[in-house]
Specification:
Number of strands: 8
Strand content: 15-25%
Shape: globular
Order of helices and strands: EHEHEEEEHEHEH
CATH topology: Aminopeptidase
CATH architecture: 3-Layer(aba) Sandwich
Structural class: alpha/beta
Radius of gyration: 16 Å
CATH superfamily: Peptidase C15, pyroglutamyl peptidase I-like
Strand order of the largest sheet: 2-1-3-8-4-7
Number of domains: 1
Amino acid sequence: MPAEAPQTVVATGFGPFGIYDVNSSWVAVQELSKRPLGDDIDLHIEEISVDYKTASELVPELWKKYNPKLIVHVGVSGIASKITLEQKAHNEGYDKCDVKGCCPENHCCVLGDEGCRVSGIDMQLVCRDINEASSDVEAEVSQDAGRYLCDFTYFKSLSIDKSRAAFIHVPPLNTPYTAEQLAEGLRLAILAMLKQVS
C-alpha cells in the first residue's frame, strides 16, 4: 500500500517593527522548523514584513503555492503572557500605520467582505490540548487579534479558507518563554489543530 502524502503545513512569523527589533514570532517559527512535527507533516515557514501591502500579496501566494492542509500565522503581542489562540479576525478598523507608514485602503482588509470571520478550528479544543500536555507553556483563547498586521493577515487567510487557517499570538522573548518553549507551544498547537482539519 503506498504511503500517504505528507500533510503540508505553512507557518509564518513577522519581521521587526516598533520596539521589537527581534520579533519573537519569527524566532519561534524558525525554532519550530528545527523540531520534529512528524514524518507525515511537511512544514514550510515564511517571514512576513510588517506592512499591509506585503501581507495582502503574500498570504494568497502562500495558499496558491502550497495548498496547505493548515496555515498558521504567528505574531508577537506585548500584552500576551501565554500562547494566545485567536478565534476570529476583523475586516475593518486598520488605522495604525505599518513599518512603511501606510494604512490599507478604507482601513479595510478585503473590500466588500463581511466585518468578521471566525476560524472553523475550535481554539478552545486546541487550548485544552496544549494545557493538558506535559509542557512548560500555557495557552488561552482570544477573540480580538488587535486590528494591526496580525488581525489583517489572519482575516486575509480566513477569507481564503476559514476551515484551515489559524493565528497564534506569542509573548515577547523571555517574558516568560524562551524561543524553544514558544516553539514547543506552536508544535503542540499545530498537532492539535490538525486533528480538526479534514
